[in-house]
User: Fold these one by one.
Assistant:
Number 1:
Amino acid sequence: MPDSVRIAVLASGGGSNFQALVDRFRRADVRYREVVGVIASRERAGVLERARRAGVAAAIAPPAATRAEMATFLRRALDGWRSDIVVLAGYMKLVPETVVRAYWGRILNIHPALLPSFGGRGMYGARVHQAVIEAGARVTGATVHFVDEAYDRGPILCQWPVPVLAGDTPESVAARVLKVEHRILPAAVEALASGAVRLDADRRVHWVREWFETDTFTNREG
Ligand code: GRF
């Protein structure tokens, strides 16, 4: 990773994870990190208003694009911003394979459950938390993983548990998980940006050195 790391975000929703990244990397004690742009998968996504207020470049993916057109669009935007890291933050579409390959080991996704449970095609938003409650799970959480060609399947970088309480609704679980997402996503991006973690050629997540000011659940020894 270069010293000055440029971070692009793909989003479809309200953009609170985008905002957490912007806020984290604009703190005075953080240097050489910049959220350089956000691509929204639909023109009415709330993340676009956040980007406007934050002065971050924004692009809207063509709604009726074929996979090939979407791949061309994403590459043009991401390459144009000279992106070093790409973060899917509530992005509802599959990233075309050619884009995944071009940015292999540099695309992260945040999922509001403990993958591999409660993930995969169709598992997004309130559906995830509804499934967690219906399954009677006592613990859910958030996962940051490297993106590969399938939904929510890439190698896991870190996770954090969140309790499921009696009387919880999908909304109350979502709110509790979202608070954790806003902490571990910026931390995971910083770990990748600083070279503390990388994805090896054999798809193994390799922690180069201790990371995370808290004992976030990663795969490091000890
Ligand atoms: C988050 O819960 C994220 O995990 C999921 O979609 C939600 C996006 O929220 N993929 P926001 O748009 O970042 O507020």
Number 2:
Amino acid sequence: MEQYAIKGGKALEGEVTIAGAKNAALGILAAAIMTDEKVVIENVPDVSDTRTLLAAIQDIGATVEHLDEHTVSICGKGIVGDDTLSVDGKNIRKIRASYYLIGALLGKYNYANVALPGGCDIGTRPIDLHIKGFETLGADVKIIQGGKIVARAEKLVGKHIYLDTVSVGATINIMLAAALAEGKTTIENAAKEPHIVDVANFLNTMGANIKGAGTDVIRVRGVSRLHGAEYSIIPDQIEAGTFMTMAVATRGNVLIKNVIPKHLEAISSKLIEMGATVIEYDDSVRVMADGVLKPTQIKTLPYPGFPTDMQAQMAATLALSDGTSIVTESIFENRFRYVQELCKMGADIRVEGNTAIIHGVEKYLGASIVASDLRAGAALVIAALAADGFSTIDDIKFIQRGYENFDEKIRGLGGDIEIVDSEREFQKYKLKIG
Ligand code: UD1
């Protein structure tokens, strides 16, 4: 099984270019099948989650063409939207965003039949709000044997929907279905993440009429059809944040290119509190740190609050600060599974309920550790790069779900990381690196 082999201790230096946002891409690729015309999408990150979603839409009859590494052309004309339609490919149950196909197919064909979503195991991840939204629009939604969701409607009619919890997935999914519903839908208490705005902008480019994305009230006036479009996905806020924390944890100096600095404000301000320097340019940020890092408090919140998807990477960095930090996870209930792995590397972290109490240590020590989910995996890579000595990280498939060419980008910054798939290869790597 493939592992990352890492020798830590080097300050990362240089430039790295951020890929398109995975979570925006997943919504946009699903939305692309809502027209029978050709859609060309640029800046699609080449990660396993997007590959899985593209394979799923191909399986149901969409034409998918890779125009270059990051540009995909999609045509949903070949999808047959009758009772034979079923999304249940080999890997689709492994990704969470398969749920966007429910909203997209229901909007277009008034019918969807999709395997229940999987994704990272970071606690209970219900989709009751998505279902409630579809039902309010007039669909009958059932979970049938074999773990599938079947949603069916005579027609979808716009309504007023209040989300009890701020949910990224439910906001996007309801927006998708409502785009082709009859009349006006209002989504209240909507999520405001940058990728919500990106999916709304994409739908509008296809002819939808969506206003207010990025605020907590989104108004969708249904249209009768969507048309072809060309669109470029926004840069990935979380990939950028991951490299920002990596620069700080290794006391490096990294220019992170192709970002929207505004999307990074919550992360930048915490890194500045820790004593790092963050310089914003138009579409890049430079992050530098040296010497002692200061502790701080973090609480994850929906955007514009501190993103839960950056919690683990930040905690891995705070574990090297001089003092005690408190990290509170308020979105997901099981998002501290990386802590025991960091403790194997010498971290001093105690978890109490949804809070991690982090007593900073001077150094991590290299160890054999295992990624439990995507962002947890990224946090372990950060720790291993900052550690004294060699580490191996198992289950890197989780990391590859959301980071494009992660090891290559880190090597570009001078980090010692390689993919190995046996103990022998690891020993060879150790001899080579010395
Ligand atoms: C999305 C992101 C994920 C990110 C998360 C929060 C994608 C593919 N994934 O996940 O990377 O960590 O947003 O920013 O974009 N909830 C319910 N009922 C529902 C839906 C959600 O109770 O029907 C709860 C969840 O359990 C959680 C909270 O709402 O406590 C927020 O979840 P949500 O924003 O929906 O996250 P995801 O869409 O799963």
Number 3:
Amino acid sequence: MQRITILGATGSIGVSTLDVLARHPDKYQVLALSAHARVEELAEQCAQFRPARAVVGSADAATRLSALLRARGLDHIQVEHGEAALCSIASSAEVDTVMAAIVGAAGLAPTLAAARAGKKILLANKEALVMSGQLFMDAVHQHGATLLPIDSEHNAIFQSLPQAYARQPGAAGVAKILLTASGGPFLNRAVETLEHVTPDEACKHPNWSMGRKISVDSATMMNKGLEVIEAHWLFGAPASLIEVVIHPQSVIHSMVSYVDGSVIAELGNPDMRTPIANALAFPERIESGVAQLDLTSIGTLQFYKPDFARFPCLALAFESLEAGGTAPALLNAANEVAVQAFLERRIGFRDIDRVIARVMHENAHHAASSIEAVMDCDARARAAAQAIVAGLAR
Ligand code: NDP
Ligand code: MG
């Protein structure tokens, strides 16, 4: 039995994870679940999966969850709240595996706690790795944690690399890591109309069903930028080895091109239960509930070069990776603030890249010498981004 904590259980990845786990009650036991504010959904999950502990974001949410659990006769579930409780369910001696599926910087502390406790980490929360890159990877190695990528592209790359050389692309004969991108909902929309698109239009992804933050990131292609940085840290690959390829069908989830001319890819239907099942069972395989890929019904696979002028966020992400240190943390924090402001209709869609560019160019980045330095940079970038948003607000 693998004993599992799911951080962010009520989100898109959390729900897909529970769907896979429910298919294999003989293999996995849910020990702890977390949500932020959606306590009704968490109470439903608690009723189905009977964890020992449930963590929410505030004392008020904890009170409401306790009442819901009591009404269901589930008083034995320990209800807690706050960051220390998240870190505790991520590092508890009773837990083997942690699904890190909180969205944004809020996931860093608990995911790092899982790394320091030497857990098997299924990493969906790319923002944590983007912010803390080297520090996070050092913690993984120092404490003997196992890091398995959930992001579909990185899971595909992981499956396409020889395991013996998982973090030495040079030694493995890798010529390029080809990171595929759907291009999101605005791939072919007239650029001048992007100024006025709505949050609902931005969240209408052509292939994937996801949380709202990552959906906006896909529309700006910041998601792909964050994924370039994520691939850099996960696979020890310099930016020059990583190429973004637009592939609107999202059937090929990414590829590795080798010096002998071979290209190895992972293909499948666009459904996150595949990478989740892959990481849960690795190195074995389990059923995920995803239908087998029917290539003849798809017929055509297309590929294009990305347009950096249409998607300035992608260029900003490459720039932050080249700059190094806390520059990716600046980028990430500014992006989180700008995306939230866009979702709340306080700024326009194209203001997102303007806010990020200004935060990056008006604030110094430093060596990422400690988690405290990273969090300090994150806080500074958030304050700077909020001030710019206030100036732009419509
Ligand atoms: P969702 O917005 O659907 O879910 C986020 C989860 O995190 C929810 O459980 C939410 O709780 C919780 N949460 C939100 N804010 C906080 C906070 N401040 N503190 C603690 N918990 C919080 O996101 P997704 O599932 O789409 O994405 C999760 C992560 O996975 C992101 O980092 C994303 O980039 C990554 N990812 C997602 C993919 C997808 O297909 N969705 C694909 C690849 C990567 P509540 O429900 O109570 O608000
Ligand atoms: Mg992805």
